[in-house]
Specification:
Layout lengths: L4 H6 L10 E6 L10 H6 L4 E5 L17 H12 L7 E6 L1 H17 L1 E2 L2 E5 L19 H11 L4 H4 L2 H20 L12 E6 L7 H5 L9 E6 L11 H13 L5 E2 L2
Helix pairs in contact: 3-4
């Protein structure tokens, strides 16, 4: 499959000619593709790490952000089916986990492409509520900033600068609306294997809530825990988390066309 301009619009990074697998990383609510810049630096020539570039933020500020999961997933899947010449491992954190799951559904149902693996991180299974105090699309600016500061994952330098907060909050509100409106399709199960990862101190994505993801795959299910809270993947064990993703990306020889 040849490169397409839409891939550059939706995905950060460039193709690696020696790559044997491709990780597609979905940022959290309010996040940008920069959240995975370190992963891209750590990846050896055999692994192509690409981060999804959501509209309404860095590089795409002039485009309105999506407020519903399904149309966002459809547009991302349309891009990914053009770069499925390598095994696709989808990794999504927090809100990004829901989007990654819906993209996996769309790839399988619409394009007949079974991802090599779906890895969901820091998000309860789709049928469970996700409740973090203050994290609501209709919260006041002050409430949202306080909630973001308490949860971590956002630079204090950014949160302390009103102009930067003004750029960040519209995308954050749109992403929170995605999570609030999202309802999984009835009895939806993907064929791809699924791994559920979380921090041991994440009060929302608890061990039980992550185990419930098992109901969403017909393939093998794995559960991994790391020390830390919601943004455990950016803490001291960030390299350990990346190595876990890399190992799972490289263990399956190819994505599969569903007959």
């Amino acid at each position: 499959m040849n490169a397409d301009p839409m891939a550059g619009r939706w995905l950060s990074g460039t193709r690696k000619p020696q790559a044997r697998a491709r990780v597609i990383a979905f940022p959290h609510a309010g996040g940008t593709c920069g959240a995975y810049r370190q992963w891209q630096a750590w990846a050896d020539p055999g692994l192509d790490v690409r981060a999804v570039r959501y509209p309404g933020r860095a590089g795409r500020f002039t485009e309105p952000p999506y407020t519903r999961c399904e149309p966002l997933a459809r547009d991302i899947a349309a891009c990914l089916q053009m770069v499925a010449d390598l095994p696709l491992v989808l990794f999504g954190h927090s809100m990004g986990a829901l989007v990654a799951f819906e993209v996996a559904v769309e790839l399988e149902r619409t394009y007949g492409i079974r991802p090599a693996r779906l890895i969901v991180s820091g998000a309860p299974a789709p049928h469970l509520p996700s409740v973090t105090p203050g994290m609501r699309s209709d919260a006041s600016d002050a409430e949202l900033v306080a909630a973001m500061r308490a949860m971590g994952g956002s630079s204090e330098d950014v949160l302390a600068e009103p102009d930067l907060v003004g750029l960040l909050l519209p995308a954050m509100r749109a992403d929170l609306a995605i999570g609030e409106a999202y309802r999984p399709r009835t009895r939806t199960r993907i064929a791809a294997p699924l791994t559920a990862m979380s921090g041991t101190d994440d009060g929302d994505a608890t061990a039980d809530a992550m185990q419930e993801w098992q109901a969403y795959t017909e393939g093998a299910f794995r559960r991994r825990s790391f020390s830390g809270a919601h943004f455990y993947l950016h803490d001291e064990q960030a390299r350990q988390v990346f190595d876990c993703v890399r190992e799972q990306a490289c263990e399956r020889p190819r994505s599969e066309r569903i007959q």
